[in-house]
Design goal:
It is built from six helices and three strands, in the order ααβαββααα. With 178 residues, it is mainly alpha-helical. It has a three-stranded mixed beta sheet. A hairpin with a 2-residue loop joins strand 2 and strand 3. Helix 5 runs antiparallel to helix 6. It is globular and about 50 Å long.
Length: 178
């Protein structure tokens, strides 16, 4: 079983820079998705990110994709095991876990954007620091059940834009001092 965990993952795992659930997926094909305080009559909020986890399982399990991962989540008030099939993005199919850390950054970005349902083109007009938050926000708005309240989206966008503006001003001030 030691060969299930690539060498490049060992140090980050022992330093707690990589989540331990990666080991659960690799060795046991199980993952507890965590609990949130939420209304029992609504679907689990973990369902929103299910397709992202499927891509993660696809990257972790590689050629063993015929195996399913059992996610431990809730259904109402009951804790249950939900079988989930790993999936691959078009770029992710060519990536291998043993050398994933050596994959070109552009390929890793494509896998992430594909999993989020976005493209580099759709984000091309945004400053680099807002591309990932924008892609994640679009994914969240399209997948969350129930759909997020519009006021929550406005607050999020305002926070992103103000944070970006503050970073820009701080950067300009720091450059002026040099």
């Amino acid at each position: 079983e030691a060969d299930l965990i690539p060498n490049w993952m060992l140090l980050p795992l022992t330093q707690a820079r990589l989540f331990a659930y990666v080991l659960d997926v690799l060795r046991l094909q199980t993952m507890g998705v965590g609990c949130a305080v939420e209304p029992q009559d609504l679907p689990s909020t973990n369902l929103t990110s299910s397709s992202l986890r499927q891509v993660m399982y696809g990257l972790l399990l590689g050629s063993r994709k015929s195996i399913q991962v059992d996610e431990i989540d809730r259904d109402g008030l009951l804790v249950t095991s939900i079988p989930v099939k790993p999936k691959s993005t078009s770029v992710g199919k060519s990536l291998v876990l043993n050398s994933l850390n050596e994959a070109p950054l552009s390929d890793r970005l494509k896998v992430l954007l594909e999993a989020l349902g976005g493209t580099e083109e759709s984000l091309s007009l945004l400053p680099p620091q807002l591309k990932l938050p924008a892609a994640v926000t679009c994914y969240w708005m399209q997948r969350a059940q129930p759909p997020p309240d519009l006021s929550l989206l406005k607050a999020l966008l305002l926070g992103m834009s103000n944070g970006n503006m503050l970073r820009s001003r701080t950067g300009n001030c720091n450059q002026a001092r040099l």
